[in-house]
Design brief:
Length: about 150
C-alpha cells in the first residue's frame, strides 16, 4: 500500500523494509510487523489506523494517500530529512556502492554522457543508479515541500 513511499524513502537513504508480501487485515501478520518494528527499532508506517494505535509509539498512521503529503507528514514529525542521497537501492534496500567503470560500460541503460556524473551500483540487483532525470525531478518535488 505504501510502495511509492517505500521507494522514495530508499532514495532518501532510509533503511526501509516493505510488508507488501503480507496480506492486509491479518491480525497475526499485523502482530508480526509490530514485533519486527520493536525488535529492530524500526518505525512501522501504515495506512491502517487501528494497527498504528496498537503500535504504541513504534507505528505511525500515514494520513494521506498522496505521496508528497505522506513525505510532508514524516518531515513534519521530524522523522526524515527530504533529500535524495542515492545510498540505497530503491528496489531491494541494499546499500549502494560506487559503480566501477566496467559496470557503467556494461549497463545498456546508462546515459551516454558520463562526464561529471556519479554512478552507484546495487550488488544485489546489479542495477545502476545515477542522479538522472528521475532523481532530479524527485529532488525538485522534495524541495517544494519546504515552500509555502
Ligand atoms: Zn537492489
Amino acid at each position: 500500500m505504501l510502495g511509492t513511499l517505500t521507494r522514495y524513502l530508499r532514495f532518501m537513504g532510509y533503511d526501509t523494509m516493505s510488508a507488501n508480501s503480507l496480506s492486509r487485515g491479518n491480525t497475526r501478520e499485523d502482530t508480526l510487523l509490530l514485533e519486527i518494528a520493536q525488535r529492530d527499532h524500526r518505525t512501522l508506517l501504515t495506512r491502517d489506523r487501528a494497527l498504528a494505535r496498537r503500535g504504541d509509539g513504534a507505528a505511525v498512521f500515514i494520513r494521506s494517500e498522496h505521496i508528497m503529503a505522506q513525505i510532508r507528514q514524516l518531515v513534519e514529525m521530524g522523522l526524515i530529512q527530504p533529500a535524495i542521497r542515492m545510498s540505497r537501492c530503491s528496489l531491494c534496500n541494499t546499500r549502494l556502492r560506487p559503480a566501477t567503470q566496467r559496470e557503467v560500460r556494461q549497463t545498456i541503460y546508462a546515459p551516454r554522457a558520463h562526464a561529471g556524473r556519479d554512478f552507484f551500483w546495487c550488488p544485489e540487483c546489479r542495477k545502476l543508479y545515477w542522479m538522472g532525470s528521475h532523481g532530479k525531478n524527485l529532488e525538485k518535488r522534495l524541495e517544494a515541500i519546504y515552500k509555502p
